[in-house]
Amino acid sequence: MTANTSWKRLFVTLALTSCIVTGIAQAQNDPPADARADARVDATGWPLGLNPQIAPDTAALIVTEDHPMGSQIRLHEGNRQQMLFSAPAIAAATGSVAGMDVSGWQGNVNWSGAWGNGARFAYVKATESTNYTNPYFAQQYNGSYNVGMIRGAYHFAHPNVSSGATQANYFVNNGGGWSRDGKTLPGALDIEYNPNGSTCYGLSQSGMAAWIASFSNQYYARTGRWPVIYTSTSWWSQCVGTAGNFSNNSPLWVARYAGSAGTLPYAWGYYTIWQYSDTGTFPGDQNVFNGAYDRLQALSNG
Q1: 77 is catalytic
Q2: Distance (Å, rounded) from C-alpha 177 to C-alpha 185?
Q3: pTM (2 d.p.)
Q4: For 148-175, what is the mean pLDDT?
Q5: What is the mean pLDDT of residues 16-42?
Q6: For the packed helices 164-173 and 205-223, what is the interaxial angle rounded to 10 degrees?
Q7: Domain residues of the chain, as ranges?
Q8: Maximum distance among all alpha carbons in the chain?
Q9: 24: pLDDT strictly greater than 60
Q10: Is 285 a catalytic residue?
């Protein structure tokens, strides 16, 4: 390794460490040690979980600005319970569909490999707040489509930064749209623990429900589809509670790293997607769609 590369890797590590330590300090409860895996680095100083092929300058941007889907749920709720079976095995046993979600952390994804291993749908991070776009979005979004997957985009919300409608517009303007082509899922709103402050972003339950409604209504106005809502039951119970019922319009994508999806957030009678692990057969997080492939196609077609 050259001296220049070593310095760049050190810069990436310092950026990552600052970001993770801040998040840990703001957690209400001390998370289990294995929930802090994102803070670890390999022998060369490169962050674990970050594609080593990513250029150091881009990597520094990703580790400081890109909070992957579920990253804050793992920090607060832990991920000690991991499934013993892969997404394809679960899908085969339950008649569901195996899938994945990725962000800038995965860099250029081997989509042919993921398809060969059984992934049939994917969600790709497009945006976060109103100031970050995934530098690998095109490769990931188009690559998943080109191998035959049904794919969609997601937005990591920061409700304390701007209105829901503003962030919905930013999302749609930067890859989060929808088209009735049978291969595009409605965009997903990733709403979870605040990586930079108080758990509920300083909002009351009614305030959070209003923010989510603002995002959802604007997304619908722009695309004709209601967004999928990604969250965990624990976060939703604390930050939204019974203040808002989104079950009539928005499919639920629930995160729980355990043997079942467990109790669901208020008003939803079933989940559409379950994110059950942050590691496994596919790059990124492991998911299953709650239904047969024709139901996944129906979701994409609206």
Answers
A1: no
A2: 9
A3: 0.88
A4: 98
A5: 46
A6: 40
A7: 3-65, 87-301
A8: 57
A9: no
A10: no
